[in-house]
User: Fold this.
Amino acid sequence: MTSYLPNVMSNGFEGQIDRLFDETLRALGASDRAWTPAANAWEDDNGFYVQLALPGWEQKDIAVEVNNQVLSVKGKRSDESSSSKKFYVQEIVNGQFARLFRLPTSVNQEKASATHKHGLLTIAFPKREEAKRRQIMIEGA
Assistant:
């Protein structure tokens, strides 16, 4: 399970090691294994957003929860018909995943929304009004 903490950059080398390990397991025939979908997390003036690449996944196979400033996205699916197939290349991932993202305190968790479109799951958290940027007028003396 991987997590995101704002202001902490993920190490590219660690990601490469994880991918190498995952490819090795795949080559050894490990099927129902855990994996990590690619993700983006960003913030703008209006909110905080998390997007995961889940091509081919159905909404029923994905669970999204928020608890105590932590967003949890989990999924599980299997390909029952793969036992009779002899794969030469198998890069479309089945199995399960879990990703955790620590949310900024400036977001309104109660008004979160999620969409699953074109293989991308996008979860949006609007900023609380008091956390939004605003212009302060300067009064003359």
Notes: Residues 112 and 128 are 11 Å apart (CA to CA). The longest strand covers residues 70-77.
